[in-house]
Give the backbone structure.
Amino acid sequence: MRKNISTLKLPHYKSTAGCAAVRIPVPKEVLLPVSPMNSHSATAAEPVVQVGDHVRVGQLIAKEKDRGSSDIHASISGTVKAIEPCAQGGRKSIAIRIESDGKMEKYPDLPIPQPTNLDEFLECVRLSGTVGLGGAAYPVWAKLSAAQKNHIGTVLINGAECEPFITSDHRAMLECGDLVKKGVELLKQFLGSEEFIFGIEKNKPDAIEAMKKLFADDPAVKVLELSSVYPQGAKQVLLYNATGKVVKKGERLASLGVIIINVSSLIKMAEYFVTGMPMVERIITVDGSAVKEPKNLIVPIGVSVRDIVEACGGLKEEPGKILFGGAMMGKTQESLDAHILKATNAVVIMNQKDAAQTEPSPCIHCGRCVAVCPLGLNPTAFDRAMQVEDEEKRAEILTKEQVKVCMECGCCSYVCPSHRPLAANNNAAIGFIRSWERAHKEGGK
Amino acid sequence: MNSPVMATGPHIHSKDNSRRIMLDVIIALLPAAVAAVVLYGLPALWMILVCVVSAVASEILFNLCTGKAQSVGDLSAVVTGLLLALNLSTRVPLWQCVLGSVFAIVLVKCAFGGIGRNFANPAITARVFLLAAFSSTVAGGAFPKAVDAVSSATPLELIGVEGAELPSLLDMFLGLRGGAIGEGCILALLLGFAYLLVRRVIRWQTPVIFVGTVFVLSLIATGSLTAATYEILAGGLVLGAVFMATDYSTTPLTLEGKALFALGCGVITFVIRFFCAYPEGVSFSILCMNILAPWLEKWTRRKPLGGE
């Protein structure tokens, strides 16, 4: 019997669901970091332009070396003003600053790719610079390359969009139906997958309807209506709810014959095969209590939050918190000078009241964090373990409680009546156990 | 302009907080407290006030003496005082009430690190301590004003006594019988239970399994539906099952653990009532299971999804 995965009913705050994405005016400049700036394992692409060069939209400006980054293309036409260090969201990268010439001139040499086999297809996807747009920023070609080793029978297309505020995937499904169809065709042709399952939460009935209509005569495609709970779109949760499968420890999703691709990533990938234009822009949701007119926008990658805010009528109040992403897993940014990355699906700007932090009080052992954890972990045990002085003992408890399984979805923090920062603590615990294991292994040799 | 907050997610939070949960428990206990005052008059009110005030005062004093941050704002001391009072009969003198409250707060709760850290339920432990120290006043119970009775024997003590006249089931449901001030009016306790369920402070499993186990075992032992119903209405079973076997700190975190905890409480209560010298076993059963709670929690640990 299929068990029920614990999930959380959250306020949706999806007030922008009905806002068709509009293109913002050409910004004066963009700043394009050469690293995805999402994790410690991220690497940097190598700039291939020099200060003073004139670049046009779609032109390669930084070349990736491995799976830790992706090709970066000019998102506006103009002059490379600087190649300089930048820091945002607590991470650092080298970034390419382009000053606009206001023309948005297209790079002329962008042929429409014509792959004939899987290897060529993957190479094309690689050149498109498409990354996982759900937030992970992992290159799409690298994800799809699993098909070289394993037969991918099932493709799960993630349109759950369970994060509060964000509606960019929702809008993309409504507005880019042709590209969704093209994407599915491409994967069918080159991956040879037999089954395509769209996972969409019920709070997007129009998107469900649109996808059903689009694939009405394709028996390989199923549209799965998921309950609107968080974190429905998380890998393990979506996989289980859609297929009943579980990725076990040390196992990869692809070895189950499944890949999960975010619907916006699929669209961006397909777009390259239709227009030849690599990833230079995306749909983002702009919302939050400090924003005057919440909207969905089509923005060039690298545009500043300041320019985005301007396109939304400015701010009503002083910003208390600036988030890239949704209210649950969004990453805070230092200022309005942060720049949109490829995987930035939303900018949420909260007012000072919404951003206020509550001081944590002692754990009352209520068990809500345990009850709500989608993966069945015990966050309060991690919390107690991190207060243990003896590192060996701490590592022992954390290993036993399998903290590394945690995906940091934040459900535990959300429900904690004592306002304990459990998700942050889990993050710290994972960091601790990783470094402890490394030190331990080296010491043992 | 203040610079924006940098923090790890989530950036929204449920409206609940610890203090609100304790307030909900207090609200849920109010019907029982009101019933106690209606049934037993002013002495019951004095007991409740004395227990609550002395519980809160001992926590304040403990924190002052040990240099700890003041914690009475979380209202848990109020809950402890209130529960202790409802678990005692009007035969208990007020100075013993004070002693019980101090014992509950200082020795059982604060000495183990305060809220969430104690392994035994403070109110229950204090009751058992008072029972051991002053069995003449704590055992048995007084009768409500409306009940015409000379003996202080409770229904549980009367069961099995030949010729003893037992209250009707309806009287039992309304609290017109001898015992502790807050345990008698089942109607009031059920109102509180419903409130806690609606507010999602507790889950239904613990009280239902606890009471259900006692009912089923009594039914098997006596073969009488009336007798089994009597057993669950009598004593402190409903009060204990709803308000004390559901205490967060002293019960397992996992739902399966809570179920086993409740089952154990039911079995021990039954065994004490039917086979031991004491007529009532709810307090002892919860205390015993409190000690087992960490193990129950360990045994019922779920296998994480994607773990081993």
